[in-house]
C-alpha cells in the first residue's frame, strides 16, 4: 500500500471503527469468555482455551468452551495449576469437538498449568520465545512447543490417544496464518479497551500480526491491503504491513470491527447492493462501486 493510499484509507477506517458498537458484538465473539474474569491469570488461561477451540461454527464451539470453563470453577488459573491427568480425565472424558478429543485439550490445560507453576504466567512463557527470536512466528512456535511439553504416557493411559493436537497447538508453527494464536495475542497485548485486555506488558502492540481468516482476507483485498488470496502467514504479514502504514504503533486495532463486519453478514462473500450503498468504506473498496454500477445499469 502506498503512502498516498494509506492517507486516503485512514480516515475512512477511523470513521468505520468509531461507528462500530464493539460491546454489542462481544457476545458473538470468543473474547466473551475471558471477559467473565478480572484476574490477569484467569483471563489469559480462559482466553487461550477459548481461542484454541474457536474454529468452525460459533454455535458449536461456544457451548464446548462454556461447559469446560464452568466445570473449572471460579478460577481457571487455579484449576490448571492443580490439574493432574486423573483430574483431566474427570473433566474431559468423552469430550469431542470436530478435530479434537479430550486428550488434545488436556495437553493444553496441563501445559498452561505447568507454565503458571514454573514461570508465573503464560506471558512469561511467550516472552521467552519472543526474546529468543524477536519475531511473532518464532515466538508463537516456541510458545506452542512449550505448552505441549507435558508427560504424554499417563495422559494417553487415562484419556486415550491424542487426535488433533497439532490443529489445537501447532508445533512447529508452519506456514499457516495461525489465526487463533494471533487472535489470542491481540486480546492479551493491545488495549485495554472495550474488547482487548492489554494485560501483557512485555510485548509491544506494534509487533502484533493480524488474525487472518476468510473475513479479514476478503475485506483486506477489497481495501487494497493485499492482493494475495491465500490464508497464509505471509499474507497475514502483508496485510499487517499495510495496516502499519495506517497506525505503526497499533496496526491490528481495526481487526475486531472488520472481522465482525464480515461475520455479521454486513459484508458477505457475495456483495449485497443495499449493504454496499450504505458502507462507510465504499470509497476505498475495490468491489462495492462496481456492484452499485452494475445494479444501476440493470435498473
Automatic annotation (TrEMBL):
The UniProt entry, under InterPro entries, shows:
CHP02757 (IPR014127), DNA_glycosylase (IPR011257), HhH_base_excis_C (IPR023170)
In terms of superkingdom, the source organism counts as Bacteria
Q: What is any Pfam family matched here?
A: DUF2400
The protein's name in its UniProt record: TIGR02757 family protein
Taxonomic classification? Bacteria, Pseudomonadati, Myxococcota, Myxococcia, Myxococcales
- What is the species of this protein? Hyalangium rubrum
Amino acid at each position: 500500500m502506498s503512502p498516498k493510499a494509506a492517507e486516503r484509507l485512514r480516515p475512512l477506517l477511523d470513521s468505520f471503527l468509531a461507528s462500530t458498537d464493539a460491546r454489542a458484538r462481544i457476545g458473538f465473539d470468543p473474547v466473551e469468555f475471558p471477559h467473565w474474569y478480572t484476574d490477569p491469570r484467569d483471563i489469559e488461561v480462559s482466553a487461550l482455551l477459548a481461542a484454541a477451540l474457536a474454529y468452525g461454527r460459533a454455535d458449536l464451539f461456544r457451548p464446548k468452551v462454556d461447559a469446560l470453563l464452568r466445570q473449572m470453577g471460579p478460577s481457571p488459573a487455579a484449576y490448571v495449576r492443580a490439574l493432574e491427568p486423573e483430574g483431566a480425565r474427570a473433566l474431559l472424558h468423552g469430550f469431542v469437538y470436530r478435530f479434537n478429543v479430550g486428550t488434545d485439550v488436556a495437553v493444553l490445560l496441563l501445559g498452561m498449568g505447568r507454565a503458571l507453576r514454573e514461570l508465573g504466567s503464560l506471558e512469561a512463557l511467550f516472552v521467552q520465545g519472543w526474546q529468543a527470536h524477536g519475531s511473532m512466528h518464532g515466538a508463537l512456535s516456541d510458545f506452542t512447543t512449550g505448552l505441549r511439553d507435558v508427560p504424554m504416557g499417563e495422559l494417553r493411559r487415562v484419556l486415550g490417544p491424542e487426535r488433533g493436537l497439532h490443529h489445537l497447538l501447532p508445533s512447529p508453527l508452519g506456514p499457516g496464518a495461525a489465526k487463533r494464536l494471533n487472535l489470542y495475542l491481540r486480546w492479551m497485548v493491545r488495549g485495554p479497551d472495550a474488547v482487548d485486555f492489554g494485560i501483557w506488558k512485555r510485548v509491544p502492540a506494534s509487533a502484533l500480526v493480524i488474525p487472518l481468516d476468510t473475513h479479514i482476507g476478503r475485506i483486506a483485498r477489497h481495501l487494497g491491503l493485499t492482493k494475495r488470496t491465500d490464508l497464509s502467514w505471509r499474507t497475514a504479514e502483508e496485510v499487517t504491513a499495510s495496516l502499519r502504514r495506517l497506525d505503526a504503533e497499533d496496526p491490528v486495532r481495526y481487526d475486531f470491527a472488520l472481522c465482525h463486519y464480515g461475520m455479521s453478514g454486513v459484508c458477505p462473500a457475495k456483495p449485497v447492493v443495499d449493504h454496499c450503498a450504505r458502507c462507510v468504506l465504499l470509497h476505498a473498496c475495490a468491489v462495492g462501486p462496481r456492484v452499485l454500477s452494475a445494479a444501476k445499469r440493470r435498473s
